[in-house]
Amino acid sequence: MVKNLFKWFTRKDSARGRTISVGNYRAFAAAKVNNLLGPWKWDNGFCNDDIRAQLVTVRARSRDMYKNSPHHRRFVNLVATNVVGDGFTLKSCPHDGMPGTPEYRPDKMASKFLETHFWRWSSNPAFCDATGRKTLAEIDRLNARTWARDGEYFNLLDTTANNPYGFDIRIIRPDAVDERYDARLSNGNTVRMGVELDADSLRPVAYYLHTTKEYSTCMGAYGPLVRIPASINGSYGIIHGYTQEDEDQTRGMPLGHAGLVTLKMLEMWNEAELAAAIDENCTVRTYHAPAGREGEIANLCDTENSSIVAAMTAPKEPGQSEVLPQGWDVSTATPSHPNRETTAFKASYQRDYATAVNCEYSNLCNDWSGVNYGSVRAGTLSERDMWRVMQQQMIGNSKTPTYLAWLKRFLSVEASGGYPASKFEKFSEHEFRGRRWLWVDPLKDIKGAEIARAHGWKTDQQITAEFDGDFEDNLEEIRRADESVKGTSVEVKTNAKQETETATAGK
Q1: What is the pTM of this model?
Q2: Element containing residue 331 per DSSP (H, E)
Q3: Total tally of structural domains belonging to the chain
Q4: Which of 35, 37, 161, 501 has the fewest Cβ atoms within 10 Å of its own Cβ atom?
């Protein structure tokens, strides 16, 4: 009895060759070993080891699905549309004086000066793009697509560009940064998948790129590797944006990698179902001779009746039929594809993929059947939380470093214009605002903003920013509009309170 109880409380751990307590062994259900979980295989290796071995394959499959799968293409484009949209807006915020002192006030002239020049540079493809074809917003959207499809994006910042600002951006394909190159350098630094890391801080200090600009695997265009510093003269030289899901992660993986297998299985099933439907819907006719006259079937094969046989067996156009001999009948096959379960089956796989990429199913698949205002709003709010997080990632990984590098170069060019590079710290104060969204019911948003403002929960500046505007710019435009109509019969109403007061005075 005691011996049996001991066996019940203990068990042999075959993986480590030791005896452990069953109670501890079952503390986590995911650690159970039984007949059902026996086939569960796992890999407990380091993140970089997994990426190094599988990045090329996963990236290639993600690109294939982007080219051929409407759902994966939809997801990638949703990332570009919602994270970037029509572009990020720069708000320059230089101040005079020290924070917390009466002298601390915004330098509006410097702010407007920097914003104007940054807009001129970013909106002109000849200035901001090394190829001269894209505005900065277009570069950002392409970066967002590459981020979603390939898992990462690279930009080379050139401070020697031949344009009035001496600065532009060159997009680098992730393939050009050799993920196969690993090395231990003599200075103690480590190269992981083409990224050189500092020996102490593990910060990226350089990237190893193929020199061939027109990189193409099909043409075998692998040039020798060249080392590009991550920072040049104290400014960013290489921008590397990706989602870091592990502390040790050096390269990015496609954002939808967890749903690619599901999507591929759905694609294969779609092809099989469509092929079956086409095959079954090909008109198959069976001809029946009248009772007691079955022998006439053989007579149809005679030469004299060859025209009748040809008419009966020839392919038919829609609505076309043939004249049968008197008394004959014809029946057609009833196809079983597509069946009534097709829609539900596809929707199940589509929901799995939508979950993998953290998108609202109805939005991802353009399926709005069976939804109501509450469900759409709940799903939309959850999805927009993800877009905001990705916006902040892109601002931190790309927008801010690019602006600071541009600003340093710009101040060195415009030093004689009263904005010296020595005040870089002052002029570097800024923020980027991403696109914003109206809710399902914009009127409810406006009423909610009014309530939040009345109770002091939000400021006018915050509310205006949420509606994708700038409070101070709006006030300035209203002031100019008021001045432009002075002395005319047109009266400009700037708020609801003024309208109420005017109506009351008229009674």
Answers
A1: 0.77
A2: strand 329-332
A3: 4
A4: 35
